[in-house]
């Protein structure tokens, strides 16, 4: 029988035992997956999508869960159908890795740091396929070629920390594909990666699926990735399946309210075409939204000129400086009051270093920073402390930037105590007002960070950044770790605060669709330089620099009719930003292609 599904999940129920009694992770879920098909399972954190996949591998038991009901039928190559829910662990060892492969979310934790890449790749082949060492190594090199890793022979002897994030994720895919499994489970395999690398890895998985006929179960919360990859889609919400259909049906004609809300919350590239100013997103089921555009003012708040930040590389016997990492190289821009400038680019392009240099959290080597008439570079420690009243930062990971042992109200009040802003009752009143502003109930003031969801923690971080009434907020990837609907709410909150308080934002991100939604101006960074800069509408609708064009091409669009093919993606590998000490850098020279739209003419290496 050819049309026999490879795996069928029937009425699965998974429970986790806690001190307060059992918690249901998956309540009652059924779906099946056929050979050569990509099934995407979509949902937000806590919807039970990863638990379903870990149950199929029977790994959920190692995380304190138990399969409380249902069947997990799997069609083996030889030996017909088995119910994995009832199988012995010995049989599971044969199936895991050999017939069902798994790609985990975080490549650094999926690889063992103390073994070479070659040893980890050949292990499965030698266990499951009884290959000799030499055969296994030859096959490993072949696999690395298939996932497009350059110089595969050299890579076998390297350790995971010597590879970049995208390379490590390719090794994990090669490991999962090594024994040619019938079913490949991919759990958020591209969440932590850049747009360009994500595009390549999605194209790679699609090609491997077509060539080998493997079925792929793809778990994600990114609707654009679903539109790019899926044949069929299962939408999960709070441990249940709420909708299932082909990718066309789900995107063009969703029936369940949750699916509709999920699709409405995704910023789509090209949505802002023809609009002069950013405006908040229209979210379903949220009352009383202010959706007016935010024009901002023409008055300059921050002026940065020739900013250069380098990090020393020490080496040799005397720990001398042998080279420099050129993190930020001759960067200049201005931000107006009440407006947002976004810096976009891939990891390692220097955008976060630029943000931190402006606050002098890392010391720049050269350049001028003028914030509302104050020369930030000339200030001593005391002057800098005063200047920081006007500029605050929101970090990427709200859990790491909050103190786990302090109540939330104290965390928001702390900056005001530090600067002696009023009496205890004044400060308390302001904390209550800030909780109202970021739409958190006042009952949360007594809670601790671990009692909150990611989106709520990020709101606390925003409330704390607002405590001192700053003029400029630097948001470093502030929404990249959040779920789609939460991300949309936090973005709307930031824009609402901008329109009411006249805040200026320096928004650092690698998500082009989000940047298009929030920005007045956009700067595209590559290898420490801004390669293109201008009003948002011009940079997005008329990109001039080849790197900007490649970046735009790579962004997946949440529409299944506009899929990318592998030939659309031709990225050059990024050169190293490390140069010897005597390296002479050419200054950045720009050509103005239209009013206010500048493109770098100096050779940027792209």
UniProtKB/TrEMBL annotation:
UniProt entry tagged with the keyword Cell inner membrane: yes
Domain ABC transporter, residue spans: 9-263, 302-552
Keyword Ribonucleoprotein among record annotations: no
Highest rank taxon of the organism: Bacteria
Keyword annotations: ATP-binding, Cell inner membrane, Cell membrane, Membrane, Nucleotide-binding, Translocase, Transport
Membrane topology: Peripheral membrane protein
A biological process from GO: transmembrane transport
InterPro entries: AAA+_ATPase, ABC_Ni/Peptide_Import, ABC_transporter-like_ATP-bd, ABC_transporter-like_CS, Oligopep_ABC_C, P-loop_NTPase
Chief location category: membrane
NCBIfam families with a match to the protein in the record: PRK10419.1, PRK11308.1
Designated name of the protein: Glutathione ABC transporter ATP-binding protein GsiA
Species whose genome carries this gene: Phaeobacter gallaeciensis
